[in-house]
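A brief tutorial aside. Many learners find it easier to grasp structure tokens once they have seen a single protein encoded end to end. The record that follows does exactly this for Molybdopterin-guanine dinucleotide biosynthesis protein MobB. Read the sequence first, then the structure, and try to relate runs of similar tokens to stretches of the chain.
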Amino acid sequence: MDRSTLHGSGLRTKQGKHAGPVICQVVGYKNSGKTTLTCSLIEWLTSSGFRVAVIKHDAHSFDVDHPGTDSYRQRAAGAQGVALVSSRRTAVMVERQTPLTELINGFEDYDFILIEGFKMESYPKIVMVRELDQLPLIQELTALRAIVTWLDKRDVSAHLSIEQKEAIPVFSKEQIEEVGTWLKLLYKQHE
């Protein structure tokens, strides 16, 4: 399967089966506004009735568990995987890096999967551009579908090829509704 297309759509097919989620990465350099954009899109999409899942890459080690809990004690005792399940929430912790495709498969019943980071993966991308010196990233990425920028949109467009100008919309960071509408259009195109 070519991951560079927005495979799946989260829609029900004419037969009523779920066609899979629209997958879109939000990428950019540190402090470019990825999390802010992702949170704004989550709010916009969920208020429009969509179910949204998020996968976030963390370049640092992290721990969601803390000393004193039973699950922490179980991990400290040597458990390589721990699942916490309540009536409202489930968390799974494994002592390995989980492949992105495996994480995506766990969210197959959602309408959208927004992936923050994983820049070198080949899923459709929105790139965040905060500074002029970040513009070369546009040419380095695969499957670039949109640009969201802190800069004047004309400055960004000036760095695009003719083909890119025709195919890749450029949004300002304030245009959340327009980015959400663009994602919604992609969703509808896969009906």
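Self-check: Residues 20 and 105 are 10 Å apart (CA to CA). If you spotted this yourself, you are ready for the next section.
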